[in-house]
Amino acid sequence: MTQVQAPRCSAVVTVTETGSTQDDLRALAADAADWPHLSGLRAVRQRAGHGRGERTWDTSELTALTASLVLRPALPAERWSWIPLIVGCAVTDALADLGCTAGLKWPNDVVLPAEAEVEGWGRWRKAGGILAEVLPGQAGVLVGIGLNLDGVPPVPWATTLREHGLGVEPDALLEAIRDHLRERLVSDPARWRDAVERRCVSIGAQVVAHLPGEVQVTGVAREIGAGGGLVIEAPDGSRQLVMAGDVQHLRATPSDEG
User: Fold this and answer.
1) Cα–Cα distance for residue pair 218/206, rounded to 1 Å
2) Which among 63, 103, 137, 158 would be 20 to 30 A from 121, CA to CA?
3) pLDDT tens digit sequence for 100-146
């Protein structure tokens, strides 16, 4: 693990290189006095960042924002399932401040618009992702944030902020995200669903959700449901609340496009 000096305040410590900011901060964040709410760790280069489904992320070929934050919100733990989506709202708001239109692909992807379709993503490209995990003893939530800033993405369904005309310093972008997140986490939770739905590009799309146990749910994503889950309406009109899984956007048909 990279040697890290605790900030002892709500600040972000930056290191030149590490395997995973998430792994490093998980080992440190048990001490709430040293790592309070919204403190965090940023790495200029991350060799083995974590994504969903045990995927790893190496930023060797990209300029990226890679950071993990400790969140200790004054919220009951039953509301913590909303946190990845609320972090996503903070990211899209920070990008909007810079003139960049971004959306959320449920459950944890930050996406930017594209002209052509790509399988599983429609007319959207992944610019980043969010990973959240509850700390032992429910001491807080550890949130990893990764955003592609510049370079050549290794897959056709990814993009960078630079490709969309936005040049930004990672530390400045992270501070903007933290500012929006600080406000979001003390806002009225009853309004979170509306905030997420307005940013979620999955709503209204034909999707297939790949759930644990090789279960698939196919239909139209209708709304954000309880706990931040995605409500999918099947062709027979039945609805299912999906709380975890990978969601692919199916290609639009001429009838879908009107």
Assistant:
1) 8
2) 63
3) 999 999 999 999 999 999 999 999 999 999 999 999 999 999 999 99
| Alpha-carbon dihedral sign for residues 117, 120, 121, 125 | negative
CATH number belonging to the domain at 206-257, selected among 3.50.30, 2.30.30, 1.10.287, 3.40.50: 2.30.30
From CA 112, how far away is CA 41, in angstroms rounded?
Answer: 25
Report the distance separating Cα 239 and Cα 233, nearest Å: 4
pLDDT at 227: 93
CATH of 12-199 given 3.40.50.150, 3.30.930.10, 3.30.1330.60, 3.30.830.10: 3.30.930.10
Per residue in 57-71, pLDDT (tens digit) is 555 667 999 999 999
